[in-house]
Amino acid sequence: MVEKTINFSKTSPFGSEINGLNITDVKAKDIDYLKNILAHNGLIVFRQQTANDRDFVDFLGRLGSLTFTIGETPVADRPELNIVSNIGRTTPPRSVFHTDTSYISQPPAFTALRAVTIPTVGGETLFSDQYRAYDTLPNTVKQQLADVRVLHVATGVSPDERQESQSWHPLFKLHPISGRRSLFLSTPERCQEISGIATDLARRILRLLYHHSIRHYRIYAHHWQPGDILLWDNRCTMHRAAHARVIGDRVLHRGIVIDRSAM
């Protein structure tokens, strides 16, 4: 099994890296082991991959059901995936810390990116540790907000009746595998209300919590290398791309996965 031969190491200040394992060698029986790594470490970096898009989709399909965010640009021959690219843009894309598609009732458990073209300089993907964000809240805040829910709404995507545009989620999310709580947020524009709290006050609280969760000392910056595949758990991380001062083309293929076995 994978766990008997895996070369697994921690990244700083959180996350994990796996060397010497191609995702094409991961079997269905190994998936629970990888999910456990994700649940406790937030993300996995697979180095030196030779996988193509078909291999990538097959691997993600072992984690759960692939889904697609309406409004994204699909990969031509793999419509399960979407393209993340800076090619042809006159200004850098806008990216802030967020959780993928948190405005639906069953947000994706996992997101993965496969490196296609890596820029010469810049283009990192940054991650915040939302377990740590929760753990470092004052106890009074944890007690006062213990049972509240937050309304997540879609922004920056085209409305489409095929996909939900808003949903309520616990502010403090209990992970079904690790049993730990995280601060479950997205960008403040997508977090509109807190249950039982007046809207203006709720939005001030959400902004404070958001800035608390992305303090620099709990951010992992992934510096892309050729052949990288990056997989993360959306239930305990937020992420954003660093688009400033990028030199060269940056093209990634993205897949998102709903894990119905761990709802």
Could you describe the 3D structure shown?
This protein has 263 residues and is an alpha+beta fold. It has 2 domains: 2-128 and 220-262, Double-stranded beta-helix, CATH 3.60.130; 132-213, no CATH class. Helices cover 20% and strands 30% of the residues. The protein has 6 helices and 17 strands. The protein has helices spanning 2-5, 31-41, 53-63, 130-135, 139-144, 199-213; strands at residues 7-10, 16-19, 43-46, 65-67, 74-75, 78-85, 110-117, 125-129, 149-153, 166-170, 172-174, 181-183, 191-194, 219-222, 229-233, 237-241, 251-258. The strands form 4 sheets. Strands 1, 2, 3, 4, 5, 6, 7, 15 and 17 form a 9-stranded mixed beta sheet that branches. The chain has a 3-stranded antiparallel beta sheet with strand order 14-8-16. Strands 10-9-13 form a 3-stranded antiparallel beta sheet. Strand 5 (74-75) and strand 6 form a beta hairpin. The chain is globular and about 50 Å long. The two termini are 26 Å apart.
